[in-house]
Design a protein that fits this description.
Layout: H1 2-56, H2 66-87, H3 91-106, H4 115-140, H5 144-152, H6 157-187, H7 199-210, H8 213-243, H9 255-259, H10 282-305
Amino acid sequence: MLQIFLQQWTQLGVDITSIWARYGDQYLHGMWNTIVLALLATLIGCIIGFVCGILNTIPHSKSDNIVKRVILTVIRAVIRVYVEVFRGTPMILQAVFIYYGLPYFTGTLVQWPSVFVAALFVVSINTGAYMAESVRGGFLSIDPGQTEGAKAIGMTHVQTMLYVIIPQAFRVLLPQIGNNLIINIKDTSVMFIISYGELFAVHRAAVGATYLYFPSAAVEMVAYFSMTLIASLILRFLERRMDGSDNYELVNEDQLVTTAGTYNHPNKGTPFDEHSREYANPLDAEKRTIQQEMLKHRNGSARGER
């Protein structure tokens, strides 16, 4: 039994070596096409999502102009339909309807310049539908006081979004953006339906010529895992960089803050320390003693006056 198992693994290695020798360059080219499509589609999808998020959060009330309310209502209805349609249908069918369906119904009116443009359009709008809801949730997670403060100093809604809300929401949304990138790396495999030359299309071509389905699938598995793992590591690095340092030392020269009791010395220590590190310096200890003596003298004079 062990001998048969070892023979199977040996044969698998031989088959993988054989298929890589014949189609290695095509596998690498397919990986490159997959990465380019996933990166560009994620970037465009994020832009679509942020635009939809900004449009969805434009404030309006019954006291506003009727034209403004109608326009905002129509915009939000269109965004809602767009989100529900592209989140509720498979990407492979979206590719078929967009690449084959539009020319079918419009004749020569709609002609895609290349398969790549069509694939990029499909993956981008699909990503944008998911990002629109993620962005809306990210905006809602920001404290409403931030928006109120921006309005108080005269900022418009667009300025508030660009300079106050989006910079804070971006950090919250970064894991979701990375998640969409990883999903797009894998989901671009359905673009073989419109003959785009990504990694899975190379796998189908190699299998059709060699009939080595499992060895080619093993190569595909390692390739996809490598791309998603590298993307995850890069995104984790970006998250750590955006978090900044874990330790901060408060520097404040405003005497009003110090006397108001809202300032904590960086070396104050904890309530469980026998001696506060804030006065570890002998000069600081002497200063504290003088302050205590002055306080006792003041209290004693006050009691004597009564």
